[in-house]
Specification:
Strand order of the largest sheet: 6-7-8-9-16-13-12-11
Mean pLDDT: 81
Strand content: over 45%
Structural class: mainly beta
Oligomer: single chain
Low-confidence stretches: none
Shape: globular
Number of strands: 16
Helix content: under 10%
Largest sheet: 8 strands, antiparallel
Distance between the termini: 42 Å
Number of helices: 0
Length: 179
């Protein structure tokens, strides 16, 4: 039986300008308590963001999942298996050496074991997402928005959703905020 959130230890990802927990909720790749660059409570916290596999047009739940942090790093890695197909995510908060932290979390995707199936990764959130200047964003107020920026891969913006074509096996996105 799967442990619930009270029995799990989350992995924190952050850089002083943006912060989230990984591994606390289902699926384990969920980004929980996204916040930044302002660290005040409601309405400063963004909604939870997570990614599921869509195989041959059907969103599926993972049979097995795990989350880990490589020793001595500021990375979180998740893996979710559906049969022979695996979705890996790698998350980090960039800290450039010249300018200081930027308000962003980067998520890299890798899907393995999908030779003939049509596979996409579908992003979900509890809050409404809207299209803002050609990108998807969760808007908290006039000053605050969490923008989902495609970095690598073929992304499709739908109604309150974001789908990533995984035919090449990999993709990347940046979750960025500011005020």
């Amino acid at each position: 039986e799967r442990p619930n959130f009270t029995q799990r230890g989350p992995f924190a990802i952050g850089n002083g300008r943006m912060f989230t927990f990984i591994g606390l909720n289902d699926p384990v790749n969920s980004m929980h308590e996204l916040v930044g660059p302002i660290y005040d409570n409601d309405p400063r916290f963004f909604g939870e963001v997570w990614h599921n596999l869509e195989i041959d047009g059907q969103i599926v739940d993972c049979d097995k999942e795990w989350v880990a942090r490589p020793r001595g790093t500021a990375l979180a890695i998740t893996r979710g298996d559906v049969g022979d197909i695996s979705l890996y995510t790698l998350d980090f908060a960039p800290i450039p050496h010249v300018e200081g932290p930027i308000p962003a979390i980067v998520r890299l995707f890798l899907v393995t074991g999908h030779d003939t199936q049509a596979v996409r990764v579908v992003q979900s959130t509890y809050r409404d997402i809207e299209e803002v200047e050609g990108s998807l964003a969760e808007v908290l107020d006039d000053e605050r928005r969490l923008v989902f920026l495609p970095w690598e891969g073929d992304f499709t913006i739908g109604e309150s959703s974001l789908a990533i074509d995984m035919s090449k096996g990999r993709a990347a996105m940046v979750l960025a905020t500011g005020y």
